Amino acid sequence: xxxxxxxxxxxxxxxxxxxPTVLALHGxxxxxxxxxxxxxxxxxxxxxxxxRGQVLERGMPRWFARHxxxxxxxxxxxxxxxxxxxxxxxAAVKYGFxxxxxxxxxxxxxxxxxxxxxxxxxxxxxxxxxxxxMVPLRPEPRPDLSEVAVLIGNGRNDPIAPAEQAExxxxxxxxxxxxxxxxxxxxxxxxxxxxxxxxxxxxAKLRTATGSPPLP
Length: 216
Ligand code: MLT
Known about the structure:
Elements: E1 9-12, E2 21-25, H1 36-42, E3 47-51, E4 55-57, E5 60-62, E6 66-68, E7 71-72, H2 74-95, E8 102-107, H3 109-120, E9 127-131, E10 149-155, H4 163-175, E11 179-185, H5 193-209
Parallel strand pairs: 2-3, 2-8, 8-9, 9-10, 10-11
Antiparallel strand pairs: 1-3, 4-5, 6-7
Helix pairs in contact: 2-3
């Protein structure tokens, strides 16, 4: 039987029509409330669709199963990335947003499932802000991501998402044709104010490129 794709979620309508929709993807142990303030900072005025991951690891919600810290169950990851993409399809119909103008903002495990969506369901996101991101999987052949823009915001001293992983992810997405920008900070597995500001400016530029109305 097919898994349910109706994620528990919060929907924040956009302030004006023509705004992008942010798909907010929390990290392990958080929930659908966690990234609402961050989404507001990075994408003021945008609609926000913020689901809760359906995998429970010792009671902590996340997006896909893992065998150990940093060792992912890639079969589960691919399946769950597909379910999440299906959920966004359904939500676009339910809430009436433009399915072709969805930008993920994911932190940690949320960045990794967003990366999984990009790599396995390439049409599912217009763009993605991946914060504290790792390589979710290494698909062959690479998908065509020539219509996709990605900002990766990682710490050079992140013990959970090592810098080499962020660099490999950037190369992989670039090889697939995506427009990739890196935003490094000197810290660890956290999101800094500088990276938030870079992400806000990056998204404002993407909106101009896609003809969305200017930010207030
Ligand atoms: C993951 O499992 O996606 C990463 O290890 C990040 C995390 O701890 O959730």
